[in-house]
């Protein structure tokens, strides 16, 4: 069995442990992720929800994505760090912010999403597959 992915917020009030490998890992350059990260993109790894153990008290913020569906961001009530996202249209997945990993070097991005909204001042790996929005399917 592979070692679980573990991580949490900056102060440790929220912790997660995830069994299994990511289903998808990406840098997202949409405006929502830019605003939340305070940078040109957010970096995420998405896992099967069944493998996730989550502890701590998260505050949730719902927002409507470009596709009109609700995505919920979970952040720490103590330190304010955003740790994860869930999606109403995809209840079987759980997405973590790559920087929240205890071992961020385990993160391996596969693609850039919403590349059409990227900024010249935030160059990303040119070898990654780029999608103007979300990839199909």
Summarize the structure.
This protein is mainly beta and 137 residues long. It has one helix and eleven strands.
The strands making up the biggest β-sheet line up spatially as: 6-7-8-9-4-3-10-11
Helix content: under 10%
The CATH topology is Metal Binding Protein, Guanine Nucleotide Exchange Factor, Chain A
Tell me, what is the CATH class?
Mainly Beta
Shape: globular
Write the CATH architecture name.
Beta Complex
Major β-sheet annotation: 8 strands, mixed
Helix and strand run: EEEHEEEEEEEE
Describe this structure as you would to a colleague:
- The protein is mainly β and 137 residues long.
- The chain has a single domain (7-124), classed as Metal Binding Protein, Guanine Nucleotide Exchange Factor, Chain A (Beta Complex).
- Helix content is 5%, strand content 42%.
- The chain contains 1 helix and 11 strands, in the order βββαββββββββ.
- The chain has an 8-stranded mixed beta sheet.
- Strand 7 (70-76) and strand 8 form a beta hairpin.
- The radius of gyration is 14 Å and the shape is globular.
- GO terms for molecular function: carbon-sulfur lyase activity; metal ion binding.
- InterPro entries: CENP-V/GFA, Mss4-like_sf.
- Residues 5-122 form the CENP-V/GFA domain.
- Keywords: Lyase, Metal-binding, Zinc.
Layout: helices, strands, pairs:
Layout: E1 5-8, E2 15-18, E3 24-28, H1 31-37, E4 42-48, E5 52-55, E6 58-64, E7 70-76, E8 82-87, E9 90-97, E10 111-113, E11 129-130
Parallel strand pairs: 3-10, 10-11
Antiparallel strand pairs: 1-2, 2-5, 3-4, 4-9, 6-7, 7-8, 8-9
């Amino acid at each position: 069995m592979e070692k679980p992915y573990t991580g949490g917020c900056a102060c440790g009030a929220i912790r997660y442990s995830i069994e299994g490998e990511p289903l998808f890992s990406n840098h997202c350059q949409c405006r929502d992720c830019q605003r939340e990260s305070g940078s040109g993109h957010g970096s995420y790894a998405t896992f099967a929800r069944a493998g996730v153990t989550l502890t701590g008290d998260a505050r949730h913020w719902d927002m409507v994505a470009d596709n009109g569906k609700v995505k919920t961001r979970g952040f720490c009530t103590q330190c304010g760090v955003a740790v994860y996202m869930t999606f109403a249209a995809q209840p079987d997945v759980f997405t973590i912010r790559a920087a929240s990993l205890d071992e961020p070097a385990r993160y391996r991005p596969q693609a850039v999403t919403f590349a059409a909204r990227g900024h010249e001042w935030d160059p990303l790996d040119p070898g990654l597959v780029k999608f103007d929005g979300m990839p199909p399917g």
